Please model this.
Amino acid sequence: MPLESIGTFEIKRLGVLNERGEADPDLMPQLSEEEIRRMYELMLLARVFDERAVALQREGRIGTYPPILGQEAAQVGSAFALSPGDWVFPSFREMGVHLTLGFPIAQLLQYWGGDERAQKAPEGLNIFPFCVAVASQIPQAVGAALAVRYRRDPAVVVTYFGDGATSKGDFHEGMNMAGVFKLPMVFICQNNQWAISVPLKTQTASPSIAQKAIAYGFEGVQVDGNDVFAVYRATREAFEKARGGGGPTFIECLTYRMADHTTADDAGRYRPPEEVALWRERDPIARLERFLEARGAWTPQLRVEAKEKAARIIDDAIREMEDVPPPAPAELFDGVLAALTPRQAGQKKGL
Amino acid sequence: MAQLNMVQAINQALAYEMERDDRVVLLGEDVGRDGGVFRVTEGLMERFGGERVLDTPLCEAGIMGAAIGMAAYGLRPVPEIQFMGFTYSAFEQLFAHAARIRSRSRGRFTCPLVVRTPYGGGIKAPELHEESTEALFCQVPGLKVVVPSGPYMAKGLLLSALRDPDPVLFLEPTRLYRLIREEVPEGEYLVELGKARVARSGGAVTVVAWGSMLERVLKAVDGYDAEVLDLLTLSPFDIGAVLASVRKTGRLVIVHEAAKSCGFGAEIAATVAEEAILHLRGPVLRVTAPDVPVPLAKLIDHYLPGAQQIRQALDEVLQY
Model:
């Protein structure tokens, strides 16, 4: 038997908008002016939400919070491609997805303020609760996709996770099943390059995360995660493919965690300031502004106004959140089981 | 009425419910074409198709996680974990998610699934094929734990579990799979979860057991005035039934095949100490395995509680 090559592969990287804000006309996705403005407003909303949430934590008004700073394009751009009825299995650092899909803002803050009641997604919005145990949401998304197919529903299931999650067994088991069963799913990895203090090169020896998909028998693509158009295009295509029976897609959004892992972390302990400065230059919002400016659709004044509008929305939500009375002690027992056990009933009475 | 063993009774329950409710979907390793390593799901793939009896890759965490997603979407999945020792890789999914999704989402998503797994020792199988770590699962609020003791109970309990709105761990005593035959009605009957059964009436001592130990206890108590309670559901367990019997007999022996320390017997003993200590005439005794890992076949008879140890405990407590 000769020694022969049994496989070669190619992995693509998609960018639409370059650093100067110039869009590749061949790759630019179909978006109306209104939709582009909406994307811009949502990214600013996510930015302001994040700034306020960090401030609220510093003031002791909410608990530990994981910032999304720098990941606005990856989150807004991908969530923008979802349709009503699609299912989302997030991790815990995708508030930009929640904001894009219209999850009540006050509820997001209420959750990070330590009130689990806020995890109840409104009817009609199929967002699973935040998943704190890294990667464990991935097989759950696989199960939802199995159910979608069993029911012959038109929905697609998307799961979000970070680069750290791709080292875990649940990532492997979930990706493997999705490939075997050719499920209507989209895997979105926000590769923000840091899992607390562990950089990507310690997380994996793989030159890209996207190429891991190949081993599971489906397409993986790396996109410039700070390019909202590239993220949107890749996600929309993946959704169309999934809806058409073409199976799963893995999308690696190469981005950067500009802030600390959480408000309890100090990233200055473990990463060089030059690296952070370099990525600050690649701010996804600034890049979209350059694009809009070249088209005569943006001025610094517009940013001020848009930010003020976002701030009003967030500040209203903060007031709403702080007006919510704390849960009563008996609410400890809410939803543990459909009906209390006799012992639980006694414990509840004895509170 | 047909005489069935437990494998046949469980198979019948699954088939009955799959016929009745198209939300019931089985998934696991070798459950389809092979009918499961114990043949519990035999014939179901042929009858209901590959979408309802899903042969999965070898991935216990993946199976459990997928079952959670299916349940949240509105199905009633029945994941099979091939042996209880392999549930350990699925712990996180079961503990951190299945048991908590209803509470975490305040009822927006629920998790009506039944995890089936062969449980317990005495089948001459390799390591980790004979585990009985039921107490670990009973510590988790939001999860129910059920252990049938024979074919009739297995079918009725499984039908109830399949209709329960919350996750149920259904532990199938492997040693009993083909050991006992009982009359099992062909149609529907439900055995309520959370209720114990008086397997034998008596007045001098209460013996509480479950799963394969029940069969052993019923043989061992021959000649004693013992009341034997078959617990059937461990979480939540039937506190009322245990207390009522202990108040009557004044003596309690608990028999389980798991290790003693922090075994489920400790929970029963503590509950009786809290609620009925003044009715006790003597110490509560536990007949259990020693605090060692489950051994292989050569030592298993020294590990599992036997009739002699059960009688010794009865003799001891009856001195009071």
